[in-house]
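hey can u check if this looks right to u? its 103 residues, i copy pasted from the old doc so theres a chance i mangled smth
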Amino acid sequence: MAKNKNKKMARVKSGASTDAPKGAAQASTAETSDSGTKKKRVSPFTFIQQVRSETAKVTWPTRNEWGVTTLMVFIMVVLASTFFFLIDIVIKQAIQFLIGLGG
């Protein structure tokens, strides 16, 4: 019991949350730079190497998947445009009818 209390006290003193799991507390303190420490800067060459490494991990779509997805986007754009065009006409007619009743 005393060991557990000492661990909690150590976490409180270090600024970590006592409710969060150990990994979450470590990740949250690593992300914050409020303590005055600056993040390590890397050279442009190293940055490009890291970007290429991460890009290689991406699962890119096949030509067929790309084509189907593009076609679906165009179809949805046409359907949405048609829907809003028709709604616009209905609202316009309703407003003209209401204005006609008042005059």
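The radius of gyration is 29 Å.
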